[in-house]
Amino acid sequence: MVIFENQFFEVSEKDGKVYVKTVQIGFMLKDFDTIVRLNPRIKLTNFAVLKQVLNEITPKPVEIGIWLPPVTVEVSRDKMSASLFVYETLDDIRSNSQKFQQNVLALLKQHKIVHGIQDIKLETVVSGKAILIAQGTPPVKGDDAKISYLEVPERKPVIREDGKADYYDMNFIYEIDEGAWLGEKIHAQAGTPGTNVHGEVVVAQRGRDIPLKYDRKSAYEIEEDGKTVIRSKISGVLEDYKGMVGVNHHLPVNGDVGVETGNIDFNGSISIRGTVQAGFSVIAKGDISIEGPEGVSGAKLIKSIDGDVFIRGGIFGLGETRVEAGGSIFVKHVNEANLVAGGDVNIGFYSLGSNIRAHSILVDKRKGKIIGGTAIAKSAIVSAITGNRLERRTELIINSVNKADGLELIQSKAALLKSMQEDILQLEAQVNRILPIVHNLTKPQIAAFEQTKQKLASNKESAASLDREIKQLMSDLRSVGKEEINVTIEAYPGTYLQIGKKSTILSRTTNGRFLLEFGELNV
Q1: What are the Cα distances from residue 128, in Å, to 31, 69, 138?
Q2: CA–CA distance from 252 to each of 154, 172, 291, 391 (Å)?
Q3: pLDDT tens-digit series, residues 317-333
Q4: How distant is the alpha carbon of residue 174 from its chain centre?
Q5: pTM of structure
Q6: CA 244: distance to chain centroid?
Q7: Strand 369-386 versus strand 394-398 pairing type
Q8: Most distant CA pair in the chain: distance in Å?
Q9: Distance from C-alpha of 42 to C-alpha of 128, rounded to nearest angstrom
Q10: What distance in Å separates the CA atoms of residue 410 and residue 414, rounded to the nearest whole number?
Q11: What angle do CA 422, 423, 425 make, to 5 degrees?
Q12: What are 97-113's pLDDT values in tens digits?
C-alpha cells in the first residue's frame, strides 16, 4: 500500500512495516517530518537508514519504520488504569467517528477492560498522546487502631496564699479499684477493597495495629464489645510506669510513721496522712506522699525506687535527712537536707543549706530562693533568688551529658536490646508452636512450657525497660547545648555558677539566663 509519493520517493506499507524507495535525490531530511505529521501512523525506527536512502537512488524499497495501528490500548502494570493511543489525524477520526468508537470498544473487549471506562471527547484527542480510557477504583486502607488511656493527673504543685498560711498542694494519689478501666484499644479496621480495570478485586490494606502499653503485673486486657480493654488487677493507685499505665499497691498510713509503725519498706505506693518522725525511714517501690502540713523533721531516709515523692510541708533535715526518688521530688521547702532525683526536684519556696542532685532543679521563679548548699542538675536550674546579702556561698552546677559517651552508651544498649528482641522472637516461636498441642503434653512438658512462657514475659519486660532507658538517654542528648541556669530576680555575690567545665563566682548582684555562648559563660 502506497502511503505517500512525490518526484523524489515513494513511501509504502507492507505487513506493518514502512518502506521508502528513492527515485531522485535532493529531498531534505528535515522536510520528511512534514510527511510524518501528515501520516501519524508512521513511526520511524532508523534515521540513519532514512538519511542514506534519501541520498541515493534505491532499486528496491528500504525499511525505515513501522506502521502503527490506528488505535492501541495499554494497561498499567498495577492494572489500575488503561490508556488509549490514537495514531489517526483528528480529521480522520471526525470523519469516521462511528468506526473510531467501534475500534475503541473492540480494543477494550480484547484487553478485557470492563471497569471504570471513561468517555472520550474527540476534540481533546491528540495524535500519539495517551488518553485515559479506564480508571480502577483504588482500595481504601482501613482505620488504624485507636488507643486511649485513663489520664494520669498532671503532677504540678500549686502554691496557695491566703494571708495566714502558705499551702503547697497537688493531686498526687489517684486511687483505683480492682477491675477499674485503665484504657482500651479499638482494633485496626479492615479496608475497603478496590477494583482494577479488569473488574478484579484489589485487596485493601488493613489499618496499622498499635500495641497497648501497660504494666502486666498490675493490669490485664480483656475483649469487651469488640474492643480490647485494660483493667486493673488490684486496688491501688494509678501510676505511669515510664510511659506505661499501671496500678501500684497502696499502703495508706493514717497517722505518722514513727514508734508505732516502725520503719516502712513497701512494694507499692504509700500515702502518709501525718509525717515521718525523726530517725525513721520510709522506702517504697512506687510513689510516696507525706501530707502533714508540718512537713518532715529529722527523718533518716525517704526513698521511692521507681516513683515520685511529694512532701506537702517542708523538710527540716538537721543535716540527717535524705530524700531519693527514681522519678521527681515535690517539696514545699528544704532545710539542711540531701535530695537526689532521677527526674526533677520541684521546690515551692526555698532551699537552705541543702545538697540537691536531679535532672532539673526548679524553685518557684516568682520568689523561690536557693541559699547555701549545692544544686547539681543535668539540664536546668531555675530560681528567683540565689545566695543572700551576706554573700553565703551557693553553688549552682550543670553537669551536662558528654555527647560522645552518651552515644556510645546508647549504641551498646541498642545492641543489647536487639539481641534481647531476637531471643524474644525465638521464644514466641516456641510458644506458638506448642500452643495448638498443649493439651497433649505430659506434666513435665507442661511445666517446661510454663517456664518458657515466664521467660518470654520476663524478657519482654526487660526489653521494654531497656527501650525506655535508651529513649531517656536520647532525650538527655537532645538537651545537650541547651543547659542553663536561670535566676529571675537576684543572684547575690558569692553565688558559684558552673556549666560543664566553665565556672565563675559572682562578684556583683545580677540576674538572668546563664548559659554557654561560644564556649564561655555569658556572665
Answers
A1: 20, 11, 27
A2: 21, 13, 11, 44
A3: 999 999 999 889 999 99
A4: 28
A5: 0.64
A6: 15
A7: parallel
A8: 125
A9: 11
A10: 6
A11: 65
A12: 788 888 888 989 999 99
